[in-house]
Amino acid sequence: MRAAAPGMRLTGITTVIDDSPVLHRLGLDVPAGEITVVMGPSGAGKTTVVRHLTGLLEPDRGTVEIGGRDVWGSGPDGLREIRNGMGVLLGGSSLFDSSLFASLTAYENLDYVLKHHGFGEAEREQRAMAMLHDLALDGVASSLPDAMPAHARRRLGLARALVADRPALILDDIDVCLDAAHSPRILAALAGWRERTQGTLLLTTHNIRLARELGDHLAILCNGRIITTGSAAELLNGIDSNEDFDHRFRVSDFLGPPRMADILADRERDRESRRGLQMTIDPMMVRAAIIGIVVVTLVVMTLTLAHLI
Predict the structure, then answer these.
(1) CATH number for the segment(s) 8-259
(2) Listed residue (94, 89, 85) closest to 135, CA to CA
């Protein structure tokens, strides 16, 4: 049975890293069963959004939900279950790609994922070899990641994310995969995953063509905020270059970068709210109320008994 595709939602997300504001009051809805593309300049916060969704970084403020479940309120077992339902390609193209096991060959990396998800030996071999072929990795099936070019390692990371047909897919900084020779294969592999799973996909990219061809929805992230969302086809209509993109969207963010003063003000409001709640349910007041109820009950019982006598 095909697993249901989960929606994803970030609400009121504020994140500070090394005393620098990265995200501020960010909200984003990723509809179930559809493809949402997040675009924005380098440093806008795209990778931080991905790290929140994948349970790698807890925000300072706000909630992160996948399939209606609170990622950061589910406990270790719940988080593990949420992660098992998603394929993930993390950003970066370093030799020590965090999406791969450096000690396993390309084939073994895919076989490991499939075995973890309960596939039998014959189906594991069929799926792994088919995915390696689809992404032009046949020739490196027996190679370790450190023996591959950067773009091949990146495609192998994508293969790991796709091979088990999980109902959610999160791809960060997919652009490294998209050299001219392999872009058609990557687009075809993503289309095949979508056809098989009807799953939910969130990807971050700078590639306008990819966003236009794949995306149902587009969210523009700038200065730690989502500044506009809508149909990818409509928002990118008439945009053919990065200069066009910057001209249309970056000027839309009149607020500028997040200010630490605003984040500190939010924290103070949170503290005041918690303080007010604590005052509302002050333990001393609760204790006094209980004692009062007991005393009144005893008095009523005494008077009732006296009347009966």
Answers:
(1) 3.40.50.300
(2) 89
Query: Burial code of 45-72, b = ≥16 C-beta within 10 A, e = fewer?
Result: bbbbbbbbbbbebebbbbebbbbeeebb
SS3 61: strand
Domain boundaries, the chain: 8-259, 265-308
**Helix, strand or coil, per DSSP, at residue 48:** helix
User: Is residue 249 a contact partner of residue 220, using CB atoms and an 8 Å limit?
Assistant: yes
Quickly tell me which residue has 């370790």 as its tokens.
144
The two beta strands, 168-171 and 200-204, are parallel
Q: For the whole model, what pTM was predicted?
A: 0.82
Task: Give dist(CA 98, CA 301) in Å, integer.
Answer: 70
pLDDT digits (tens, 9 = 90+) for 175-226: 877 777 888 999 999 999 999 999 999 999 999 989 999 999 999 999 999 9
49 and 8 Cβ atoms separated by less than 8 Å: no
Residues 13/61, Cβ–Cβ less than 8 Å:
yes
Cα radius of gyration rounded to whole Å, the chain = 26
Name residues whose C-beta falls within 8 Å of residue 259's C-beta, 6 or more positions apart in sequence: 21
Distance in angstroms (rounded) separating the CA atoms of residues 283 and 273 = 17
Q: How far is CA 202 from the centre of its chain?
A: 8
Query: CA-to-CA distance for 105 and 174, rounded, in angstroms?
Result: 21
